[in-house]
Amino acid sequence: MENCDWLVNAAGERQPFRYPVADPPDIPYRLYRFLSEVEDIIIAERDDRRRLEAICPRVRRLLDSSPWLQAYHLQPPRDRGWSVLKLYEEPDFKLTVQMVAWLPGRTSPIHNHGAWGIVALIDGEEKNRLWRRSDPKGDRIELVEECVLEPGEIIGFEPDAIHNVEALGDEPTVSFNLYGITDYKARFEFDPEKQTAKRF
Length: 200
Hints:
Layout: E1 2-8, E2 14-20, H1 31-44, H2 48-65, E3 82-88, E4 96-102, E5 110-111, E6 117-123, E7 125-133, E8 141-149, E9 154-157, E10 162-168, E11 173-179, E12 188-191, E13 196-199
Parallel strand pairs: 1-9
Antiparallel strand pairs: 1-2, 3-4, 4-11, 5-12, 6-9, 6-11, 7-8, 7-10, 12-13
Helix pairs in contact: 1-2
C-alpha cells in the first residue's frame, strides 16, 4: 500500500509523489524528533524537490502520531479571516512550523513563498489554484489547475510555485504548514488582471 501526496513546481504542475505506508512506530513520533530529522535533511540535501520528497513522509508520520494537532489552532478573527499559530520558533532555526486556519469562504492572494513549503490539511476543505508565469520576462500569470485538498492530504511547493487558497465548506479550514528559509526578494503577490507582481 502507498501514500500519495503532491508536489507543485514553478510551472504550476501538480505531480503525484508516492511512497510506502510506514509501519506504526514503536515509540511516539514527537515534534522534537520530527524537527531534528527535518533539520538533518535540510543540511544534507540541497535540492528543494528532494528535500520535499524526504520531508513529506515525516510530516505524515507526525500527523498520524499526534492527534493533539487536530484541535491545536487559533480561531480566525472575523475581520481578518485567518489565523496563524506558531508551533516552534527558535533564533536562526531554518524552519517555520505553524498551524493555519481560514474562515469559510476566505481566499488568499495569489502568491509564491520564496521558500519550499509543505501544507498538510487537518480539517475542512481547501481549494488550491495553481498558477504559472506565462511571460518569463514579465509578471503575467495563467491558471494551470484547481485541486481540492481534504483532511489527510499533503501538498509540497517548490519556492517558485504560485498558488492561492480558498476555504470551502461551513467550518474553518485548518492546516499544518512547514516552510524553509524565505527569500523575501523572491516572494511576490500577483494580480492576473493588472499583470503585476509586488513584494509579499
